[in-house]
Amino acid sequence: EAGVVQSPRYKIIEKKQPVAFWCNPISGHNTLYWYRQNLGQGPELLIRYENEEAVDDSQLPKDRFSAERLKGVDSTLKIQPAELGDSAVYLCASSLARGETQYFGPGTRLLVL
Amino acid sequence: SQQGEEDPQALSIQEGENATMNCSYKTSINNLQWYRQNSGRGLVHLILIRSNEREKHSGRLRVTLDTSKKSSSLLITASRAADTASYFCARSGETSGSRLTFGEGTQLTVNP
């Protein structure tokens, strides 16, 4: 069974530029999560989807971050414009349902210069 | 913000020794999960222990949960160099739905 797929794996951009990350969850997993992990820290949840509905986005900085999961499968997380402090690893995870084990992708490492 | 603490922050042991990592938390939980993260990689799920469970085993891993003390521990027995990684506990709270709150992790180094 394929795991959670994320792309790109690495991204270097200049501040004020836009950037987008893509995630394809494990087949059949209804719940999808986006986390941000700063260096030396544990991941912090940005947004959780149940199918195509964003049900927990309280931690998402809505002035510059947006996310979508239009068909309830893959998802895109966007930052526009990026700031220096956005440099981090962005992790996508999925689970069969709410409260079940979360399986993580390899992450996208973002560096904003 | 992240709640709870993990200790130690870093642990260095020799191959064959046991490694114990601890996790404390502040609010009631539905379950607590342990993850491993190798450098530059995603997180790998190790064990989930529910609030009504006290101990779970998986291979060389043993997790305990003491809800009265709001703490959990992960024991890795007969460690190997390949166990070198960061280990995180993640709490799923009673009031937070399925949101996982991660600690800052313990960096384990197993020296050959």
Structure description:
The complex is a heterodimer of chains A (about 110) and B (about 110). By secondary structure, chain A is mainly beta. Chain A is built from no helices and 11 strands. Chain A has strands spanning about 5, 10-15, 20-25, 30-35, 45-50, 55, 65-70, 75-80, 90-95, 105, 110. In chain A, the strands form 2 sheets. In chain A, strands 2, 4, 5, 6, 9, 10 and 11 form a 7-stranded mixed β-sheet that branches. Chain A is globular. Chain B is mainly β. In chain B, strands 2, 4, 5, 9, 10 and 11 form a 6-stranded mixed β-sheet that branches. The termini of chain B are far apart. The interface of A and B includes residues 48, 105 and 109 of A.
Q: Report, as a whole number of angstroms, the end-to-end distance of chain A.
A: 37 Å
Number of helices of chain B: 0
- The multimeric state of the shown protein is heterodimer
Please tell me how large the radius of gyration of chain A is.
13 Å
Sheet having the most strands of chain B: 6 strands, mixed
Shape descriptor of chain A reads globular
| Biggest sheet overview of chain A | 7 strands, mixed
Number of helices of chain A: 0
Give a count of the beta strands of chain A, DSSP E runs of length 2 or more. 11
Instruction: Write down the secondary-structure element order of chain A.
Output: EEEEEEEEEEE
What portion of the residues of chain A fall into strands of 2 or more residues? over 45%
Q: Percent helix among the residues of chain B? A: under 10%
Largest interface: A-B, 25 and 23 residues
Order of helices and strands of chain B: EEEEEEEEEEE
Rg of chain B: 13 Å
Low-confidence stretches of chain A: none
Beta content of chain B: over 45%
Q: How would you state the average pLDDT of chain A, rounded? A: 93
Q: Which structural class matches the secondary elements of chain B?
A: mainly beta
Please sum up the structure shown:
The complex is a heterodimer of chains A (113) and B (112). With 113 residues, chain A is mainly beta.
